[in-house]
Design brief:
The chain is α+β, with helices and mostly antiparallel strands. The two termini are 23 Å apart.
């Protein structure tokens, strides 16, 4: 089993400067490699440059620029070139599939925040036997950086990543052979229905409130964004005040993200501890939050008919604020570690199917929270009905698999 551990770094002032220089130089390498690919395709008879070609040039690049490129780990620079290669492969895959291509962009220094070391011991070393009761990670060109390790690392460290978030630095360890920690069996199976009014509703009738972290911070965030927008375009990214305003917006978004993750982890852990099997809807969040297509007016060329985009935008914001996809991913990871089972089921008509007689119809749900079967008269909360149907489908899938 593979797991990732994320710990806060406590670098000295000099080490923080060196970490920033490491990101800057890897960003320069990424942009230079992208420029080489663009120039080769445009000017040399549409020649494609591959990862192997660029990796072979690293030795000469390090020799030519020892101050900026030669001081860093060779393997971490190869990982940066692989990152570009993956972006190019994804671009060509989207082109072949007829999707919006999205050609890889040049990275700004402020937007290149991660450097990966592909192997522990090659340019970096996770110190599993800390000296002076302090855990440290050794990084080539930086030194031994103190780590705030708040939990033990299990398994074998494979890759080490260094990430910048605002003014803070983190180390991310990807480990394999992590042993599972099974929880005692409870004999319970539950279905959950994700929603906006309630974050989730269980088949037992329990409602978990939706904290709406984005909505709670909307006024403060809007004020910070308005202040950022007051700077003229010609002075953006050039003044100290503009950088401070941008950091303020980023800090608010980071706080909202941390609050959401904390809520997701605690909710998932409670479900895992109480139930052996958890069924949930298989949700396509990207499709659910897609912007409605424009509707041209046939009578007035150049005009468009109402398509409900404004109302859909509010619903999309609420769905993304709830973070269903992230929560279900966390739930699956915790279930695997605790030897629990998570079963995704078809989400179609879960809130329109009567759990008593099986009648399916949109008229069964006359209101957002109300379910009333037009055949047998069964009356219940619509989210609870959805959770009951999820439980029924999860139980059927469980019996079929057995």
């Amino acid at each position: 089993m593979m797991r990732a551990y994320k710990f806060r770094l406590r670098p000295t002032v000099g080490q923080a400067i060196a970490l920033g220089e490491m990101l800057r130089d890897h960003c320069s390498l990424y942009n230079g490699a992208l420029q080489e690919r663009r120039d080769a395709y445009r000017h040399v008879s549409k020649t494609s440059v591959k990862y192997g070609d660029q990796s072979a040039q690293l030795k000469d690049i390090r020799t030519f620029d020892p101050e900026r490129q030669g001081r860093w780990s060779f393997s971490s620079q190869q990982a940066t070139l692989r990152r570009l290669d993956k972006a190019m492969q994804a671009f060509f895959r989207r082109v072949k599939a007829g999707q919006t291509p999205g050609y890889p962009r040049f990275k700004g220094v402020g937007h290149f925040d991660t450097v990966v070391f592909p192997k522990d011991g090659d340019g970096c070393r996770w110190d599993s036997t800390p000296h002076d009761a302090q855990t440290r990670v050794r990084l080539q060109g930086v030194g031994h950086v103190r780590v705030h390790q708040h939990r033990p690392v299990r398994g074998r460290v494979k890759t080490v990543g260094i990430k910048r978030e605002g003014k803070h630095w983190y180390v991310i360890l990807a480990c394999d052979d992590v042993p599972a920690e099974p929880l005692p069996a409870t004999g319970s199976i539950v279905g959950i229905d994700m929603g906006v009014t309630h974050f989730l509703t269980t088949s037992n009738g329990e409602h978990i409130a939706n904290p709406r972290f984005l909505q709670a911070s909307a006024d403060e965030l809007a004020e910070a964004q308005r202040h950022l927008a007051t700077f003229p375009k010609r002075t953006r990214r050039r003044t100290k005040k503009h950088r401070a305003a941008a950091r303020k917006v980023a800090k608010l978004h980071a706080r909202i993200r941390r609050q959401r993750l904390d809520h997701h982890h605690k909710t998932a852990l409670a479900l895992i501890r109480e139930h052996d099997v958890i069924g949930h809807e298989r949700l396509n969040t990207a499709g659910m939050t897609r912007t409605p297509k424009a509707r041209p007016d046939p009578e007035q060329p150049g005009s468009f008919l109402p398509n409900g985009a404004a109302a859909k935008a509010g619903l999309n914001r609420s769905i993304l604020d709830a973070g269903w996809g992230i929560f279900l991913g966390i739930l699956a990871q915790k279930a695997e570690s605790a030897a629990r089972q998570v079963i995704p089921v078809d989400a179609r008509n879960t809130s329109r199917t009567c759990p008593e007689c099986g009648h399916v119809g949109a008229e069964n749900r006359p209101a957002q929270e109300k379910f009333e079967c037009t055949v047998c008269g069964f009356l219940a909360n619509a989210d609870h009905v959805g959770a009951l149907n999820v439980l029924s489908r999860a139980g059927l899938a469980l019996c079929t698999a057995a």
